[in-house]
Each structure stands twice: as C-alpha cells, then as structure tokens.
Amino acid sequence: MINWGIIGCGNVTEVKSGPAFNKVRDSKLIAVMRRDIILAEDYARRHNVPKFYSKASDLINDKDINAVYIATPPGSHAEYALEVIKARKPVYIEKPMAVNYSECLKINNEAEKHRVPVFVAYYRRALPGFLFVKDLIKNGSIGKVLFLMIQLFKSSSDDEKTGKPSWRVDPKISGGGHFFDLASHQLDYLDFLFGPIRKVKSNAVNQAGLYKAEDFVSAEFIFDNNIVGTGMWCFSVSPDSSRDIIEITGDKGSIKFSTFSFEPIVLTNDSGRQEFINERPEHVQYYLIEKIVQSLKGQGDSPSTGITGARTSRIMDEVVAEYYKKG
Known about the structure:
Layout: E1 2-7, H1 11-14, H2 20-23, E2 27-33, H3 37-46, E3 51-53, H4 56-60, E4 67-70, H5 77-86, E5 91-93, H6 101-114, E6 118-120, H7 128-138, E7 145-153, H8 158-161, H9 171-174, H10 178-194, E8 199-205, E9 216-222, E10 228-234, E11 243-250, E12 253-257, E13 265-269, E14 272-276, H11 286-296, H12 306-326
Parallel strand pairs: 1-2, 1-4, 2-3, 4-5, 5-6, 7-10
Antiparallel strand pairs: 7-11, 8-9, 9-10, 11-12, 12-13, 13-14
Helix pairs in contact: 5-6, 6-12, 10-12
C-alpha cells in the first residue's frame, strides 16, 4: 500500500488531486499538512484523512507515510522535495516542478544520489482525451506532422485590475507569470508527443502593467524531425477574446483541441471532419496518480517524472530569459 501525505492542502487538492489518492487502487491518503493547523484539521475532517500537521517535517518523518505529494506554490517545491528525498521517500511535485530549471536539477541530482523516484503533476500525460490525441498522431490520422500552433488568451482577473495580484504572477514564488502556471501544461504535453524541444526563439513583455511578471509571450520552437511549433500567450485580453487552442497539422490533415476547457477534439483529414468528446474526469490527476502508484509498486512506469518535468522548466526559462535579464 502506498500511504500518502500531502504538504500544502490548498485549493488544487480539494478536487483535482486529493480525493484521487483514496480512489486509486493500493493507495491511501493518511496525512495532510498546512501551516495553519485549523485549516489542516478542517481539510482532514472533510476528506476523512486520519492525520494532520502544521509542520512539513513532521509529516515527512511520519513512519506511516511512504510517499509525499507537494502541493504548495512552486517557490517552496525544491525545499520540501529535497527534505522528502533526504528521508528516502518518493515525491510527487505539483507543476511547475520548481521556480526554475536550476532548482529542478538540484532535485533530480539528489534523487539520483539517494535513488528516490520523483514525479511531477503534468497529468495530461495520462488523461484519456490527451492519450487519444497521441494515438491519432501515432496511427497516421494526419500523416507526417509538420507544425503546430498554440493560442492561449485570458483576461486579467478582478484582483489584478484592483492591484491585488495573486502569487501566481510573483516570479519569486511562481517562477514567472501565468505563462509558468498554464503554458507549462502545454509545453510539457508537447514534449510528451514529440520529445524535447531542441531550439527556442521568443518574446516576452508586460503590456497591461498590472504586475511585474510577463503577461504576453510569443515563441517559436523546433522538435526533432523538424516539427515546428509556434505559441502565443496573452493574459490581458477582453473576455470575448479568450481562446484555448492547440492545432497540430500534418501532411494529411489536422487535429484541434483545447488544453483547459476540454472542448471536443476535432480531426480533419481525407475522411472529413470528425469530433470526439474529451471528457473531463472528476479528479483530473486520478490517472497520473494511478500510474505513479503502479510505478512505485513495480507494475509499470509513470509518464511524468523529474526528468521530463525539468525539461519543461528548462524551456520556460529559455522563453522568458531575456525579459528577466532586462528586468
């Protein structure tokens, strides 16, 4: 049995991940930690978790826990991950893996030294709809892949407009702006489809002036086999201009789908235009957690690891490097 402890039982753990630990076979959530002990106790009570803590070290060193999920903001991922690894326990880290690639390398180096597995919560690598897209490509539904396009446009939040931006746009805590929080899922999934990105050219600026982090990013990137990608991310458009699209084009057709809104997957080729339902699971991390548990029990491999997670962080760092160099 894999007995989990969660460090940082905030919003992301309420539905997306937390309940899944008790629904996956051979997995059980037995402890949670939050610095506010009242909130930790409340979470434990509502989710029927036997133990709760206010100190991460107490949870990490709990003899009944043999795997730890870190669900805090990225600014503390490396600190907690290194402590878990030192305790010789597998660690599952929320994305992005850390605030930068350098911290990812520290985590992976220590994990290799102590022979401890590391996993990262890029759960689209295990979601059925996204695996379906991968199968469409593998089965030649659009022929040889030539290029792909990403467009993710979102409006500024009310808090941002009133001068109260969240930690998600504080680079010291998140690594960058919303690009780090959201585009990381997209870039990691593309790594899953086509392998590591070989080359990047990019622009990152702040257009709305609501916070210091970048709020607009454009990038060009190349994978092996000369597959070319372009991306545009803007987080200050009007609500009417919101967009969430990835389109992959081959020499025999194209596939269009969303990353976050779970719109139908659209395949267009010689057979015409077809739509396929991309159902959102109740707990979106369930399938990846299932893969991780199987991996820990020697029954398979996880598609998302510290190695793949670090690759995604490396690309994000490269994309915004010039912006932060100027800043």
